[in-house]
Amino acid sequence: MNPLATELNQQIEKAAPAVSGLLSDLGQRIYFPKGILFQSAQAKEKAHKFNATIGTAIENNGPMHLKVTERYFNLPPAEVYPYAPPAGRPKLREAWREKMRKQNPSLGKKPVSLPVVTSAITHGLSVVGQMFLNPGDVIISPDKLWGNYRLTFETVLGAKIATFGMFNDKGGMDVGAFKKLVTAEGKRAGKVAVILNFPNNPTGYTPTQKEADQLGKVLIEEAKKGTKVLSIHDDSYFGLFYEDSTKESLFGQLSDAHPNLLAVKLDGATKEYYAWGFRTGFITFGHPAGEALYGALEKKVMGTIRAMISNCNHASQSVVEHILADAELAADWERTFEVMKGRALKVKEILDRPAYQKVLAYYPFNSGYFMCLKLDGVDAEALRVHLLEKYGVGTISVNATDLRVAFSSIEENQLEELFELIKKGFLELKKEAK
Ligand SMILES: Cc1ncc(COP(=O)(O)O)c(C=O)c1O
């Protein structure tokens, strides 16, 4: 074990023994080296004569860059060309934490860590998975999940996703099924890792406030029994809450809930600010030990990032930092929110008509980018291919019964035609099956 890793592990053990027990083997081994980045950061402060540390180029006291590149940016060169600080631009990190507090009143003044910038949420999932999951470990998720979790957690890391049925027959979240799985896993392993994604991909569901409280309570109760709990919150679609759901992340209630519980929030500008290609996301920790723990965890995150991708895109961090400070952001975002909400409600209005109700059932949805049809008697993949080939309509088959529709990508005045074609295609296949 590298002595720097040992030092971080000792800090974590001292601040939060349960978190120490949650770290994977790699999570224990990883550290942020006193290598080029460390030495260059030190030189930045002290090398007043010459700084010949880092592998970038300087000209006229600024970053060397090509004139042709400059044409395409109207940001200062220093905000584009150099490597970003390893944990992200400090002002951006502060601003993101402030935004998080404002939008999650249940966070109050709880001590959450300064978010570390990742190359968006997929990368954040990977970093957290590497730090906390060993091959063979189980991570609990609703059975409605983003398919890429399988690639990240199972294929790459060798962990196993255990699912519970997300919905009960009353059209709400099946908290009982969640509790059963959490309790069983706690008993079996003494350690429980959970990933909850709301607004959910693929269904577009976010729990009601009551359900959210109940879900949180399940994890807190489990932690109180002595089980070490890792609660990962994939808040990719945060803010897009159209109806009766909670308007907060579960991270708020869990972030200082119990010493045995580490809450991790993954979020970013990709979905929330419609900046998918920016690849700017964040990892934030919540634990009652606060700063005594966060410093060491942050170093481990930085080490994982350094090992995997070295550094996150700087230009897009600068843009996100600027838009967060822009007085027009709120109104601009509100406009897009209303467009997305209009589409979601329109989809519901269409599917709730008797002509549709008889044919197409759907899972509850109230938020996000998507909704998901629950097909009866027609294979989702067969319908997807049929819709594509006969009508030029693209959808996603999630499994044999579920067809995901991204209403986020369809104008409101085209939803009528889209669902008419889906219904038609469905009925054609259903007839064939008879
Ligand atoms: C639930 C969920 N998490 C994470 C991601 C990845 O987001 P990003 O583009 O920020 O990596 C997606 C994207 O589809 C998603 O649906």
TrEMBL record:
Residue ranges of every copy of the Aminotransferase class I/classII large domain listed in the record: 83-420
Cofactor needs? pyridoxal 5'-phosphate
Keywords for this protein: Aminotransferase, Pyridoxal phosphate, Transferase
InterPro entries on file: Aminotransferase_I/II_large, AspAT/PAT-like, PyrdxlP-dep_Trfase, PyrdxlP-dep_Trfase_major, PyrdxlP-dep_Trfase_small
What Pfam family is a match for this entry?
Answer: Aminotran_1_2
GO terms of molecular function: pyridoxal phosphate binding; transaminase activity
Which Gene Ontology terms describe the biological processes this protein takes part in?
amino acid metabolic process
Instruction: Give the matching NCBIfam families.
Output: PRK08637.1
PANTHER family on file: ASPARTATE AMINOTRANSFERASE (PTHR46383)
Q: Which family does it belong to?
A: Belongs to the class-I pyridoxal-phosphate-dependent aminotransferase family.
What is this protein's name? Aminotransferase class I/classII large domain-containing protein
